[in-house]
Design brief:
By secondary structure, the chain is of the alpha+beta class. It folds into 2 domains: about 120 residues, 3-Layer(aba) Sandwich (Rossmann fold); about 90 residues, no CATH class. About 15% of the residues lie in helices and about 40% in strands. The protein has 4 helices and 17 strands. The strands form 3 sheets. Strands 6, 7, 8, 9, 10, 11, 12, 13, 14, 15 and 16 form an 11-stranded antiparallel sheet that branches. Strands 2-1-3-4 form a 4-stranded parallel sheet, with helices on both faces. The protein has a two-stranded antiparallel sheet with strand order 5-17. The longest helix has 13 residues. The two termini are about 15 Å apart.
């Protein structure tokens, strides 16, 4: 196994990664920012890409692996602090995450994406585009109705086991927290909704949005 590191933005580089091949990218890397790292990965056996950054960078890396048909490459995540993705997948942070990125074992997981072809690694939050932010519409998780009418918002989270995702109305119950529904896909119809995926907000409101399990899995590095 040969790790290659993509350091995104000002994220600190842990000591355990400094002897590896390290490439620099913006805090939110775009398509061309992966070219050097991918070129290096193509020359090694058992390739592993290590992302040092936040959930937005991690999601961008998984999106590029998916779109470029490189899902055979293992993906490791080294955030400085806890994030939605570390919570969703039970991952470590800082120096411990860096050690796992080098010596951990990859596990095959369901890949959750949306209809815009963007991978989800932590959480998507959906709300209305008006000033009060209330979400109007209807949403289903597989064939189960999540809501119909007006709600404060909706959140979608990937899970490491099948069927692949869970969704909830963005409102806690008096007891037990959110009411989660699990499934393979969640579909939303709304007059006007705004999406925030892994901390990145869409520029335009949408009338429909779908998150679903991709037809291929991905490889996430865990503690061995």
């Amino acid at each position: 196994m040969t790790p290659v590191v993509l350091k995104c933005g000002d994220a600190p580089l842990p000591l355990a990664l400094r002897s590896l091949d390290v490439f620099n990218a913006p805090a939110l890397p775009e398509k061309d920012d992966f070219d050097e790292a991918f070129a290096k990965l193509e020359t090694v056996d058992n390739a592993r890409l290590v992302i040092v950054g936040d959930d937005g960078a991690f999601a961008a890396a998984l999106t590029r692996l998916m779109r470029s048909e490189r899902l055979h490459i293992e993906l490791a995540y080294v955030p400085e602090e806890r994030t939605d993705a570390t919570h969703a997948y039970g991952l470590r942070t800082g120096s411990k995450a860096a050690t796992i990125a080098v010596s951990g074992t990859a596990r095959r997981l369901p890949l959750i994406r949306d209809d815009a072809g963007i991978a989800l690694v932590g959480e998507a939050h959906v709300h209305g585009s008006e000033h009060d932010g209330e979400l109007i519409g209807e949403a289903y998780v597989d064939d189960k109705r999540l809501f119909s009418g007006t709600v404060p918002g909706m959140r979608v989270v990937p899970i490491p086991e099948l069927p692949g995702l869970r969704a909830a109305i963005d409102k806690r119950r008096w007891f037990g927290g959110h009411r989660w529904l699990t499934g393979r896909a969640v579909q939303l119809g709304s007059p006007s909704a705004v999406l925030t995926r892994d901390g990145i907000r869409t520029e335009r409101a949408v009338k429909r949005s779908t998150f679903y399990r991709h037809d291929q899995d991905w490889l996430l590095v865990y503690d061995s």
